[in-house]
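Suppose a colleague, Dr. K., hands you the sequence of a protein chain of 267 amino acids and asks what its three-dimensional shape might be. Before reaching for any lab equipment, you can write down a predicted structure in token form. Begin with the sequence itself:
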Amino acid sequence: MEKQQPSKAALLSIIPGLGQIYNKQKAKGFIFLGVTIVFVLYFLALAAPELHNLITLGDKPGRDNSLFMLIRGAFHLIFVVVYVLFYFSNIKDAYTIAKRINNGIPVPRTFKDMIKGIYENGFPYLLIIPSYVAMTFAIIFPVIVTLMIAFTNYDFQHLPPNKLLDWVGLTNFTNIWSLSTFRSAFGAVLSWTIIWALSASTLQIVIGIFTAIIANQPFIKGKRIFGVIFLLPWAVPAFITILTFSNMFNDSVGAINTQVLPILAKV
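The predicted structure, expressed as tokens, is then:
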């Protein structure tokens, strides 16, 4: 069997898909190449202008909304970062597959074999992809936007769209220590944050473990009573929720059946 050259496969993967085609994985190669073509078209048509706006944050007050430009730019930046990760994983994939072929390890070559391999080895990852996508745009995206805003001059005197935002680098962070008003406010917030973290997390765990150890000692009477007491904060909210939904869906007096469904029937 002809030996593959891993370095050549990796070099060909500079254009995504060619390394996979070189490794006789034509289906995967054309998919990777198709993803790249779609990304290039998307980048030229949508991402590039928005990333340019992210850098400039607009040039005409009243027309350009710097805050929206920043948000849209951060949104497209996520897609660019995802593709960059895909790009480097494509190079690694071509190199790794070439080495596996040389070592006599079977690799999926046809589209059917690739789907079968994904189902057998990657099915759990397919199930968690939606949660990662949701987490990216529900958690990571707002955090990125907030961090970016921290590096601008966004304040009451610079409110888009009447005013443009500008990148100010670390000025806001240096002002925390150089300006007395910022320093006192930051010190108060930081101190209370530390106190809250210690009291709400560390102290809670310490007291919980200590209480559990004491309640489990042989000389303690009425352990079942303590068990019920400890269980109530966990069980009561769930019980109330169940009871609430039971009342909402009651056939005769429930809000869903007596109010919501009749309204939907008229729509």
